[in-house]
Amino acid sequence: MNCENIVRPVELIPFTEKPDRVQKDVRNVATVPSKFAFWNKLTKFFRDVKAEMRKVSWPDRRELINYTIIVIITAAIVASFSGLVDVIVSGLLKLLGRLGG
Predict the structure, then answer these.
(1) Would you list the domain boundaries of the chain?
(2) How far is CA 57 from CA 5, 48, 53, 60, in A?
(3) Residue 31 main-chain phi, psi, to 5 deg
(4) Is 67 within 8 Å of 59 (Cβ atoms)?
(5) pLDDT per residue over 42-70, tens digit each?
């Protein structure tokens, strides 16, 4: 196979003097927010969090107890199922180990 037939010359892209984009103002890019501005943003954030927490519909004591019981029962069922699957798979692997080796 001749490599001269595969390789083709590349066309050069002409260089333009002036870019299409506008140069950014250096003063706007190099500014650093002051500590005062940071403090204002931080306090505004916590005020917003406090306002949102007032909007939350909190469960009453009875609902909280019911949800806690449901979570504990669900976790116990999932743990039991996982343990059962683990015992079964471990037994099958031991059986295959005895048969094969």
Answers:
(1) 59-101
(2) 74, 17, 9, 9
(3) -75, 145
(4) yes
(5) 999 999 999 999 999 999 999 999 999 99
